[in-house]
Amino acid sequence: MIKRLLLAVVVVSLLVSAAACGTDEPETIKIGVVLDLSGDLAPMGARMLNGARLAAEEINAAGGVLGKDIVLVEEDGKTDPAAGLDRVKKLIEIDGVQAIVGPMISGSSKLAIPYAKDHSVPCITMSATAFELSEMDGTEWFFRACLLDDAQGRVLSEVVVDGGYTKLATIVLNNLYGKGVQAALVEGLQEKGWAGKVVAEVEYDEAKKDYRTELGQIKDSGPDVVLLVSYADDGIMIFKQALEMGLDTIAWLGCDGNYGSGLFKEPRSAEFMEKAIVAGTRTVGFGSTYEQFVTKYTAKFGEAPEIYCDTTYDAVYAAAKAIEAAGEYDGAAIRDALTKLSFEGASGPISFDARGDRSSGAFELWEVVKDPSTETGYKNVQIKLVTLD
Amino acid sequence: MAVNWAQVIFNSAVTGSLYLIGAVGLTLTYGLSKFPNFAHAELITLGAFVGYFVTEQLGLGWPLALLVAFISSGLLGFLCCCGIFQPLARRGSSIIHLMVASIALGFIFRHSIGAIWTWKPLYFTGTGSAFDFGPLRITHLWLWLIFAALALSLAMHLFMMYTKMGKAIRASSSNPGLAQASGIDVDRVIRVTWFIGAGLAAVAGVFRGADTQIWPMTGWDIILPIFAVAILGGIGNFYGAIVSAFIIGLAENVGVVGLMALGVSTTYRIGIAFLILIVTLIVKPQGLAMLFRRA
What we know:
- The complex is a heterodimer.
- Chain A has helices spanning 2-22, 42-61, 81-93, 106-118, 149-162, 176-191, 212-220, 232-244, 267-276, 287-301, 309-326, 331-340; strands at 28-35, 69-76, 100-101, 123-125, 142-144, 167-173, 197-204, 225-229, 251-253, 277-283, 342-345, 348-351, 361-370, 378-388.
- By secondary structure, chain A is of the alpha/beta class.
- Chain A has two domains: 27-146 and 308-358, Rossmann fold (3-Layer(aba) Sandwich), CATH 3.40.50; 150-284 and 363-388, Response regulator (Rossmann fold, 3-Layer(aba) Sandwich), CATH 3.40.50.2300.
- In chain A, α4 (106-118) links the parallel β3 (100-101) and β4.
- The N and C termini of chain B lie far apart (43 Å).
- Chain B has a two-stranded antiparallel ribbon.
- Chain B has one domain: ABC transporter involved in vitamin B12 uptake, BtuC.
- Chain B is built from eleven helices and two strands.
- Chain B has helices at residues 5-33, 40-57, 62-90, 95-117, 140-162, 164-174, 176-181, 186-211, 218-233, 238-261, 269-283; strands spanning 130-133, 136-139.
- At the A-B interface, β7, α7 and α8 of A face α1 and α10 of B.
């Protein structure tokens, strides 16, 4: 008897929830969000989700979109391209969303772009930076609130030209990121009519951790400036061994991957960076909108926003503004509205070019200085803000 | 591109020295116990962490760090031998069983180390400074590493040739049955060898850690070239290992120069050790051992 009763309750509750799914909810506007909340990028994804929630809350407090509240349909891309695509499919087919914020990684985005095009649903990524996504069929359905690796290389090319360097050596990660920044730097130099030449190129394995011979080769090629594109832990090894190999008399260029206090936990790495790095780059938000964002985020979540929280926040705003401008909840209309959109986001002014790439934003050039008040004795400081438009 | 060959050869000696110290234990235990101990990687890692603990966390200096690391890994190797591998072998386990057991042990050790010291990389401080010597750029640590490898070679030579235990190791390795019949306690010889071999792995770990960084995969990062050294040198053959360590070191470093000249990523340097390993197995599975018949 009890079993039957239970069965009945289960059936009824299933029916009720199915009915709830079937019912239209005309009172809200759904925006899909695909962030990697598990897997390698889980800590980053969770903070970014906070940025998205903060934006949604503010938008609703200000009256919502088309007179309705927005609702974020949050999905976990699991730092896995296949899982990311699966979540995009779920959002479009089951939830029927007409605008998606994400996917977070380039791998998922690559799979999601053709699907988004087929179903006429625009995606706005907050952190997929690989250049090749802009060359795919369907890229007109893929917008980016972040700046590309490409832009970073071009900013560095100005440093090389302005510094009067003529012999460039590069040592970069053997992946899309490392090779992308390297190629963009060299292209940027060629466009500027740079008279120097590339004397050595290394693409290294981040797992090897011993780069003596690579660095020796760089030294023997006699460069006056060296680009390093690395992540944190491999960057430490290269800077440490570069100091041992006596490469600190040459000018070095850094990037967003080797920015941050994590690089100073090895004292020789910190010493080398302070002595040798003339400039590194990273994307930054700036201006009053950014400062307000930092204040609100910190007050709400008890910690300062980290990398890409601001672009996630901006991507949700971009989706909401585009829906409002389109005047209807329809993917194609929202896409058209996105192409014409222009607003002041937390990460700087936001507008998109013909390929959906962000056409404006800011990089800072940074260097490393000694600061006895910090735990490691070193810190990053901004040399200059470079805005792109 | 100009190549500073003196530096390349010197780097090869540094790399080769590290591989030699790491490979001695592997090749000797492989020769005696007749299976490759994959947990050898974790004996290297443990040595690196114990060395870190003694120098950085207790602040007690390098000689003591090397000694404590040697004893810790040595004891662990000894315990693995008497507690796991010898009982398994007595019950008639094949090389496959022993290998799988060693892989499992390696996992347990690696993750235990990760649980104790975390998976974040740690760095030794105070590893000495660098200086120029003619065309060479040298650090004190690299000199110590080469010195350690030379001292080890000499000590092992004297040990193997002139001590009773050394002779017993050679006898047990080449013909355990005959050694047993001649009154040698082969099991005891095996246990002593495991202690020494594991201890030396720890020394390699401390040097590798001081030169780069340490994390629970430290040993695993260099286990492939170490296997290549053991196999190229001939399993169980100490003299072969000396020659092959330098060959592998040279191949890797010259390989990096070659890869760069070809415009190929230096990611493939690990492939060089692989290639030597495969070619050795196909062409001369006994490795360089035939050059050292006496041993």
